[in-house]
């Protein structure tokens, strides 16, 4: 057993003063085979703790169905950290933000249109209780009070930027205490008055603050509300994340080191967000909406101390040098660098068109009107809406009211255009050979393929159902009698592939290829000449690619490959003239 407590303005571990120097890394953004590598590098940099969020949607992907295996094995991650002599800070609050899909909340919460999130609303609290009943007993053996490495836990995350329901925060606190989470509990928020008043000031819960600069100002504001307690920056933003279509964010190490030095001179404890960012594999990237919908890229490199593939950076070296002036850094043998491999160009020789494969991927659902993914128990991926337009009809527009998040429009299988969420006028004109076309007497088939590009993870737009959320109009007339195919694309094994047929159509298509590997290692998938879609290696969803950048390659961890034959499948939405990909030995961001 051990104790982690507060005495005045000092943290105490087993009765001795301690300063926490922590780094954030998320087990669910790193393949498990690399957890130990990243944790060793954390300790070798002079840190004495690791911090991680807990993503509810990873652990309860379907209501009542829990997952704690593979990349979701949080118990193994905590055990590894403890075995290496690291303290662990766990943030199991239901909501995590983290630029993660829906801020970590499971999509199935939105099946109930009246669901109220992040407040004292009993149906929501009941879902949390069921989750905590499964999660928290798994964490209990790892608490420091039970001889484990976990010294502190968070009850909610940056709540002051969302709401001010103190009854809700107290409920979460009591929910943890009732399940024997008898370690230090804390909140973390921005440091202005609004955030602190809304998200902190809970009895017997330590308030911490998040920022990237001006530490003196941040801590002074915190002390206006919380005197005689340790200063703790729970999220020191030493880098930043990227949105699709934005530039790659970088923050130079001299600035990072300067702010850290000023915090350490104030005797503050610090948690680097992030120490190692990792990857938004699959469809787990989140999105922001502060007047404009902005989905986060697949790479969560964050310009952190370790880059996306876990390599040491100049920032790592500079931070380690500064930390060594404050604490004795243990002499640790660093892990051997992980090989980066160049496997060259691979031609994808087989294909399967989406519209020819619908019944292999999904069972059709009949509905009078378009409904959202959540109403059909779908979490991620794509959804296809199909209906008939009677004819003859004059030239007119298809109007989507509204689309979340990006839709491809087809008439009789012919691509008409794309409608994106940020477009104020969500319409497409029906054309044939670039000329406005009429609906013929026999009518036409309208198909709308909608991509969920990531639910909003922060702020007032958190409730973010996906698909077509209201209806579809032909000019002013709403269209009814739809056939819907849910396309989570979580299992492509039933697809029938045939020899590729060369064409210049914009039909969404799966392309398949095989390549041989003599020696496995990390590699980076470059999709030059492709437009937008999703990539799979040996059935594992690497994430999205998009030619608008800033991300130019997808990270492929070596453990996803196998010696001998490997399979790659690309789901390309807009078609490619030459289906060739490149596996190279370096990443391209920006």
TrEMBL record:
Lineage top rank: taxon: Bacteria
Catalytic activity: Hydrolysis of terminal non-reducing beta-D-galactose residues in beta-D-galactosides
Record-annotated Beta-galactosidase galactose-binding domain positions: 508-566
Ranges where the Glycoside hydrolase 35 catalytic domain occurs: 10-325
Key words of the record: Glycosidase, Hydrolase
A Pfam family assignment: Glyco_hydro_35
GO molecular function, one term: beta-galactosidase activity
Residue span, Beta-galactosidase 1-like first all-beta domain: 370-487
EC number: 3.2.1.23
Record-stated family: Belongs to the glycosyl hydrolase 35 family.
Protein name in UniProt: Beta-galactosidase
Species annotation: Paenibacillus aceris
């Amino acid at each position: 057993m051990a104790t982690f407590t507060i005495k005045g303005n000092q943290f105490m571990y087993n009765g001795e003063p301690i300063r926490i120097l922590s780094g954030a890394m998320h087990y669910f953004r790193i393949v498990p085979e690399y957890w130990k590598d990243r944790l060793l590098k954390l300790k070798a940099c002079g840190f004495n703790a690791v911090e991680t969020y807990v993503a509810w949607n990873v652990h309860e992907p379907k209501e009542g169905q829990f997952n704690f295996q593979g990349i979701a094995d949080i118990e193994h991650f905590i055990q590894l950290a403890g075995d290496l002599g690291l303290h662990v800070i766990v943030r199991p609050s239901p909501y995590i933000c983290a630029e993660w899909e829906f801020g970590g909340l499971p999509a199935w919460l939105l099946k109930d249109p009246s669901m109220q999130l992040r407040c004292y609303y009993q149906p929501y609290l009941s879902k949390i209780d069921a989750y905590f009943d499964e999660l928290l007993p798994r964490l209990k053996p790892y608490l420091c009070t039970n001889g484990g490495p976990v010294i502190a836990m968070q009850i909610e995350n940056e709540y002051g930027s969302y709401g001010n329901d103190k009854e809700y925060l107290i409920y979460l606190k009591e929910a943890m205490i009732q399940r024997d989470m008898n370690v230090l509990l804390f909140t973390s928020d921005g440091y202005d008055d609004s955030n602190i008043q809304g998200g902190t000031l809970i009895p017997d819960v330590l308030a911490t603050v998040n920022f990237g600069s001006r530490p003196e100002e941040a801590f002074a504001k915190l002390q206006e509300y919380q005197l005689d307690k340790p200063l703790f920056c729970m999220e020191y933003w030493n880098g930043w994340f990227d949105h699709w279509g934005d530039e790659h964010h970088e923050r130079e190490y001299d600035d990072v080191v300067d702010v850290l030095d000023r915090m350490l001179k104030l005797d503050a404890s610090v948690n680097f967000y992030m120490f190692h960012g990792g990857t938004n594999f699959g469809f787990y990237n989140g999105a922001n909406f502060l007047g404009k919908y902005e989905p986060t890229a697949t790479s969560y490199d964050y310009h952190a101390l370790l880059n996306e593939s876990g390599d040491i950076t100049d920032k790592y070296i500079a931070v380690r040098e500064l930390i060594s002036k404050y604490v004795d850094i243990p002499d640790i043998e660093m892990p051997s660098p992980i090989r980066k491999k160049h496997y060259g160009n691979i031609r994808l020789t087989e294909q399967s068109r989406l519209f020819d494969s619908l019944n292999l991927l999904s069972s059709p659902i009949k509905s009078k009107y378009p409904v959202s993914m959540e109403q059909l128990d779908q979490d991620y991926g794509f959804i296809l809406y199909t209906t008939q337009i009677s004819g003859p009809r004059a030239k007119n527009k298809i109007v989507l009211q509204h689309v979340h998040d990006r839709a491809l429009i087809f008439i009789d299988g012919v691509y008409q255009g794309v409608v994106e969420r940020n477009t104020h006028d969500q319409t497409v004109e029906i054309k044939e050979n670039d000329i406005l076309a009429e609906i013929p007497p026999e009518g036409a088939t309208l198909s709308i393929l909608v991509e969920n590009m990531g639910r909003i993870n922060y702020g007032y737009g958190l409730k973010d159902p996906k698909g077509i959320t209201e209806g579809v109009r032909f000019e002013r007339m709403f269209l009814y009698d739809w056939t819907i195919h849910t396309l989570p694309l979580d299992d492509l094994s039933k697809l029938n592939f045939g020899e590729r047929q060369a064409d210049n159509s914009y039909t969404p298509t799966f392309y398949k290829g095989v390549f041989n590997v003599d020696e496995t290692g990390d590699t980076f998938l470059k999709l030059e000449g492709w437009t937008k879609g999703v990539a799979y290696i040996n059935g594992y969803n690497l994430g999205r690619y998009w030619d608008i950048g800033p991300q130019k390659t997808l990270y492929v961890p070596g453990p996803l490959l196998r010696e001998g034959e490997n399979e790659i499948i690309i789901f390309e939405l807009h078609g490619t003239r030459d289906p060739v990909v490149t596996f190279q030995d370096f990443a391209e961001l920006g």
